[in-house]
Automatic annotation (TrEMBL):
<keyword id="KW-0813">Transport</keyword>
<dbReference type="InterPro" id="IPR050490">
    <property type="entry name" value="Bact_solute-bd_prot1"/>
</dbReference>
<protein>
    <submittedName>
        <fullName>ABC transporter substrate-binding protein</fullName>
    </submittedName>
</protein>
<keyword id="KW-0732">Signal</keyword>
<comment type="similarity">
    <text>Belongs to the bacterial solute-binding protein 1 family.</text>
</comment>
<dbReference type="Pfam" id="PF01547">
    <property type="entry name" value="SBP_bac_1"/>
</dbReference>
<feature type="signal peptide">
    <location>
        <begin position="1"/>
        <end position="21"/>
    </location>
</feature>
<dbReference type="InterPro" id="IPR006059">
    <property type="entry name" value="SBP"/>
</dbReference>
Length: 420
């Protein structure tokens, strides 16, 4: 893309907000036959069917709404496609968002939600956990509903472990033990040891699910100083490099090992990925293994917001309030760990979840969310991601200079951190 996502959404803010109400109560383009479009990145048929059923229920009580369409965009291209649509005047009315949220909020591209949600009868705004709303808030105002607060967990293919003669006790499990068992499974079966889902030697931010256990972080708390050149980060990447090139417990570049297809012993993946388990092998799930810095938890968040450029911002905000009310939030919770305290018990989650028991969900979801950190998120996410990836490419070679590569990452992204 010739410009960054931040520039694109800033253009939106400058070019369209002057004619769009910023509080979701602006003049609608039409009072009937309103067609709403929401961008999402899921292509899961069951999830889309649930969204459609909720939309149908809303339309039944709101005759002014002609249709609500969920537009599924590929996850890998989601931010690029959404920001291009925004800049081109073809933005959806509502959208999911992950690491793009900071730019969208800072540029004024999202409708404030707090007043509408607090004023919706039965919505119960006080049920939201403050610990999960921060990523989508500014100065006490909520700009996106954090519909998915999914802890990363360790999925275990117990069939592969048994085939390799390996056992494990999920309690007190460490990264060193995962690597040791993963290497044994690879030696015995030819399958992969452990994989970090969605990493694919490209999406480096997913490695925060490992390096956080070493006490490392991509940058400091206010996002102004790079943390890749720290001793803790060096230790974390030394572990990963050894797992790849010495122990062979982690599949190397160019090698595909899909846990959900039965091709790996372990996977670090969000609990919301459980829908990919098809019953073709026996499995277990556990919290992330402990690292040298001890126990920890990491969550990946996604929010739902209304684009301020929407000609139907008021109608879109009304639908969002319905989509996220307590009843519908409980339905969504079978796929996406909710932000509502009332739904965050093992029993409540298990009521709509066929993959895990209440005890498992209590352990890997409820007990993890309160103290979890999120994946690295910053303004300029696309530019930072690309520059860091370019430098980290040198890491994935047997003779890599690990401290040198990590120092080069900081040299590349430091100017962007300051600018953000």
């Amino acid at each position: 893309m010739p410009t960054t996502a931040k520039k694109l959404v800033s253009a939106l803010a400058l070019g369209t907000l002057a004619t769009t109400a910023a509080c979701g109560g602006g003049t609608e383009a039409a009072t009937e036959d309103i067609e709403l479009r929401m961008s999402v990145w899921t292509s899961n048929e069951d999830q889309l069917a649930l969204f459609d059923s909720i939309a149908d229920a809303y339309i039944a009580d709101h005759p002014e709404i002609k249709s609500i369409t969920f537009e599924s965009l590929p996850f890998e291209e989601y931010n690029t496609t959404l920001t291009t649509q925004i800049a081109g005047g073809n933005a959806p009315d509502l959208a999911w968002m992950g690491d793009l949220s900071a730019d969208l909020i800072d540029s004024g591209a999202l409708v404030p939600l707090t007043e509408t949600l607090e004023g919706t009868e039965g919505w119960d705004y006080g049920d939201l956990l403050p610990s999960v709303t921060g990523e989508f808030s500014r100065d006490g105002e909520l700009y996106a509903y954090p519909f998915s607060n999914s802890p990363f967990a360790l999925y275990v293919n117990t069939d592969l472990l048994a085939e390799a003669g390996q056992t494990l006790d999920p309690a007190g499990l460490t990264w060193d033990e995962v690597s040791e068992i993963g290497a044994a499974v690879h030696d015995a079966t030819g399958k992969g040891g452990f994989v970090v889902n969605d990493f694919n030697y490209s999406s480096w931010n997913t490695l925060a699910t490992v390096w956080t256990g070493f006490g490392a972080s991509a940058w400091n708390e206010d996002g102004t100083e790079c943390g890749f050149d720290s001793p803790e980060m060096t230790e974390a990447f030394t572990f990963l490099h050894k797992a790849i090139y010495t122990d062979e417990s982690m599949p190397g570049p160019g090698t595909t090992a899909d846990f959900f297809a039965g091709d790996a012993a372990f996977a670090v993946a969000q609990v919301s990925r459980a829908g990919n388990l098809d019953g073709s092998f026996a499995y277990d799930i556990a919290p992330l293994p402990a690292g040298p810095a001890g126990d920890y938890s990491v969550i990946g968040q996604a929010g739902m917001g209304v684009l301020a450029s929407s000609a139907n911002a008021e109608a879109a905000t009304g639908f969002l309030a319905f989509l996220t009310n307590p009843e519908n939030a409980a339905q969504l919770a079978q796929y996406f760990p909710p932000p509502r305290q009332s739904l965050l018990t093992g029993e409540a989650l298990a009521a709509n979840n066929e993959k895990f028991t209440a005890e498992q969900l209590q352990t890997v979801v409820v007990d993890q969310i309160a103290d979890a950190v999120t994946l690295p998120n910053h303004t300029n996410p696309a530019e930072i991601a690309q520059k860091a990836k370019t430098e980290l490419d040198a890491m994935w070679a047997p003779d890599a200079d690990i401290p040198g590569v990590l120092a080069s990452v900081c040299s590349a992204i430091d100017p962007l951190l300051v600018a953000g």
